Amino acid sequence: xxxxxxxxxxxxxxxxxxxxxxxxxxxxxxxxxxxxxxxxxxxxxxxxxxxxxxxxxxxxxxxxxxxxxxxxxxxxxxxxxxxxxxxxxxxxxxxxxxxxxxxxxxxxxxxxxxxxxxxxxxxxxxxxxxxxxxxxxxxxxxxxxxxxxxxxxxxxxxxxxxxxxxxxxxxxxxxxxxxxxxxxxxxxxxxxxxxxxxxxxxxxxxxxxxxxxxxxxxxxxxxxxxxxxxxxxxxxxxxxxxxxxxxxxxxxxxxxxxxxxxxxxxxxxxxxxxxxxxxxxxxxxxxxxxxxxxxxxxxxxxxxxxxxxxxxxxxxxxxxxxxxxxxxxxxxxxxxxxxxxxxxxxxxxxxxxxxxxxxxxxxxxxxxxxxxxxxxxxxxxxxxxxxxxxxxxxxxxxxxxxxxxxxxxxxxxxxxxxxxxxxxxxxxxxxxxxxxxxxxxxxxxxxxxxxxxxxxxxxxxxxxxxxxxxxxxxxxxxxxxxxxxxxxxxxxxxxxxxxxxxxxxxxxxxxxxxxxxxxxxxxxxxxxxxxxxxxxxxxxxxxxxxxxxxxxxxxxxxxxxxxxxxxxxxxxxxxxxxxxxxxxxxxxxxxxxxxxxxxxxxxxxxxxxxxxxxxxxxxxxxxxxxx
Length: 627
Description:
627 residues; alpha/beta; eight-stranded parallel beta sheet; five-stranded antiparallel beta sheet; 16 helices
């Protein structure tokens, strides 16, 4: 069982644990029945009559996929669920069939010795605002008309936009009306929308309490399963508009790409006022403004009949005597009672603490995983906050993720946006960024462990060239660059992702993302357990899983398949150091060289156990293929 000791994971013997796994799975974001893949517009708005039974895979496929993950050494899963999967039919109506299915899948993972933490996944609020997570009725409850999001620019949604869907356009929804409104209400409705009630309950309390109660349904259903080690508070939380000054000029979003309205323009667009907005492009040279365009020329409304636009209702703007809209409170979201607000400390921390309290009312000793807004290392945690928490921040190589290309001589720092040139400097940048991600837990959050909850690469690089040629060498090189940065930091992580129904045409079935380590379309028919794997030369590699001391060096060279591990042994620990050594890399066996002591090789379990002759001191283990 995983335990916490300072900023490390340890087992019952005191050994340091280096956890490796995947996110299971990418298509969990969309319904299984009917086919909810984001490219499919059929029945999209019939959001109450769906089922997520079959996500991440049909139960009859569980043995196939779990045995594959076990063989690849991915025995620690970030297991995706969604609020929508649990409570899609309406407020307080829980899908019991899905909860029973979920338990059956988690029971199966236990059979393979796989541990999981549950990730209630959300991106840009909901499928109906271009992402996933929250049920459709949450939008309707505050008066938003999801059928008018396209006309009003309130969200860019694959199902209503159609193909081709612009590359990595979905994150721009962070700066559009639907996402901005829902997250602001969810985290800060009491301060920023006190006039907005749902069933006579303040919007913030209504939304949060339904979210907590939905996840507690899962906790109740799984509470006796010992391989469930914890619960993530929320995937990639968004501040919405909280903390944003001067909304008349502010443009929000992860980056500028496509239509880029100001915050105030999003409000006016949703209220039927046409707006001329900037258009941006994201390319190899960065963000570039390419022009302007007029949106909502027809004067459509993003609000249901009988609902006043929320931000007009709450005094942010109004219409003057001539009928022209006027911004009344440009700093409405950055100040409360004359005080500057801070999203993480004032809104996210109280939410995360309450989440921990709610889940621990069912599971008193469960671990709580916490991540802040991506690329905003502002998250802090103190002794006054909930104990036994784990930092689960994310990191991606932004050049590879956003541009879908890999250049070994190019990197971009995700926070500073500084461009780094040169192969050596690019490698150092990746290593440093991983170190900075881990430091959020060890330095800013009171010295807690970090598991990097998402990290990986898209496989549809260079316009899907590998799918036509069968040559995945670029993907191998790109993923290896990320894996080396993780190894150099002795990081625990869960790769994004494993999608059981990934295809070359439609990727992970969500917004044309394609980051799965497995695809049916890569199954060549050889029939072994690795069939269908992508870039396995980089993904499936030896690592020290249980270290009886302190690691100092861990490196795998994928071409000669040589592995080196150096550590200092803790004489107080009697259990051996254990390495995962995949048969995939060493089908004909491997040679072991050690500085001293004895090794025991268990090929069936893909495990090497090492016991040094001299307790204490530094020790070295080297592996290479036989012959």
